[in-house]
């Protein structure tokens, strides 16, 4: 049997700043629209194109940008509704991380000002719910890009998903601005957050993030943990507040910083941490180069050290794939 099917194309919608497409940010997929339609028209267009793609797959027709994709399968899932929504359309941030993959867009600018994002997306999602395109019982949402705490429509989006029985919403956040919408997710056991702290002290944090907000971030993570623990029905709900450490050469790639990061995570009540390479910037600037040895050494060190501290460890999947491959 041929690999004619792709569950990303059949079950995923990915919203970016300039367009909406079927696929995730790391694959090509097919662009659906550049937001030129009104929300009703866009929702109908998405619905029609989803059917067209499914019909094409059944006839062996593979979209041009998908022919070399490793995620193609021989069979489609029985349920062809939307099960995953990626919201990566937002670039504005309140943190100035020097390694940010969006610096070409933001020019390194950041602020605490709350701004409008793209309200068309919220209205389009409401229409997709009306058209019964979204699987209410199995929907996973990924929220990334810029900082959700300074995105004006973020609380509305969270309410929309919660009102429609979303299974899980996972958010990437700087953690600088405390979000009542995130707190609501955690209290209901319907989502979680990852904050890339990348440090174990305010001095290192400031060098990396260009903001003197380390203490504020850690206090906010502690508050999120307390909110998560209020939901007694979800096992290990506190695991859904995650501190992430991205290894950055010359800034934090040493065991001393790792030890401080783990100790601080424990101090503020976190139960899970994540270790990651800096792969976005690396892929852009070091394509074809060998993965540095310090990445392997720090991964091994954290894998031993975290359990000793009573912390669960997540190893970033993209980082692990790159490290296994050995090159950027």
Commentary on this structure:
Strand 6 (168-173), helix 6 (180-188) and strand 7 (191-196) form a beta-alpha-beta unit. The chain is an alpha/beta fold and 328 residues long. It has a domain at 1-174. Strands 3-2-1-4-5-6-7-8-9-10 form a ten-stranded mixed β-sheet. The two termini are 32 Å apart. It is globular, with a radius of gyration of 20 Å. The chain is built from twelve helices and ten strands.
What's the quick description here?
The chain is built from twelve helices and ten strands.
Spell out the key features of this protein.
328 residues, alpha/beta, 10-stranded mixed beta sheet, globular
- Quaternary arrangement of the chains shown? single chain
Question: Strand count, sense and closure of the main sheet?
Answer: 10 strands, mixed
Mean pLDDT: 91
Unreliably modeled segments: none
Strand order of the largest sheet: 3-2-1-4-5-6-7-8-9-10
Shape: globular
Question: Mind sketching the topology for me?
Answer:
Elements: H1 7-11, E1 12-16, E2 20-21, E3 31-33, H2 39-58, E4 84-88, H3 103-106, H4 119-130, E5 140-143, H5 154-163, E6 168-173, H6 180-188, E7 191-196, H7 202-209, H8 214-229, E8 241-246, H9 255-267, E9 272-276, H10 279-285, H11 293-308, E10 312-315, H12 317-325
Parallel strand pairs: 1-4, 4-5, 5-6, 6-7, 7-8, 8-9, 9-10
Antiparallel strand pairs: 1-2, 2-3
């Amino acid at each position: 049997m041929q690999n004619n099917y792709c569950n990303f194309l059949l079950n995923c919608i990915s919203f970016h700043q300039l367009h909406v497409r079927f696929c995730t940010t790391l694959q090509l997929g097919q662009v659906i629209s550049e937001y030129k339609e009104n929300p009703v028209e866009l929702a109908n267009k998405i619905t029609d194109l989803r059917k067209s793609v499914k019909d094409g797959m059944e006839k062996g027709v593979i979209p041009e940008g998908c022919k070399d994709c490793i995620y193609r399968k021989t069979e489609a899932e029985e349920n062809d509704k939307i099960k995953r929504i990626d919201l990566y359309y937002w670039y504005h941030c309140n943190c100035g991380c020097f390694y940010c993959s969006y610096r070409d867009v933001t020019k390194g600018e950041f602020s605490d000002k709350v701004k409008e994002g793209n309200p068309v997306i919220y209205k389009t999602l409401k229409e997709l719910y009306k058209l019964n395109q979204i699987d209410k019982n199995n929907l996973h949402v990924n929220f990334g890009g810029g900082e959700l705490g300074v995105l004006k429509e973020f609380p509305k989006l969270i309410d929309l998903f919660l009102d429609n029985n979303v299974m899980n919403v996972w958010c990437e956040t700087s953690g600088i601005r405390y979000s009542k919408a995130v707190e609501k997710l955690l209290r209901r056991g319907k989502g979680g957050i990852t904050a890339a702290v990348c440090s174990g002290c305010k001095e290192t944090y400031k060098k990396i993030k260009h903001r003197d907000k380390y203490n504020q971030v850690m206090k906010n993570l502690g508050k999120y943990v307390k909110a998560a623990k209020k939901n007694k029905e979800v096992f290990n709900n506190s695991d859904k507040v995650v501190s992430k450490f991205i290894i950055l050469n010359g800034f934090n790639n040493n065991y001393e910083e790792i030890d401080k990061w783990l100790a601080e995570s424990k101090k503020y009540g976190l139960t899970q941490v994540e270790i990651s390479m800096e792969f976005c910037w690396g892929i852009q600037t070091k394509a074809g180069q060998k993965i540095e040895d310090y990445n392997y050494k720090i991964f091994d060190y954290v894998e031993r050290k975290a359990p000793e501290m009573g912390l669960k460890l997540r190893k970033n999947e993209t980082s692990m794939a790159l490290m296994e491959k050995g090159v950027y």
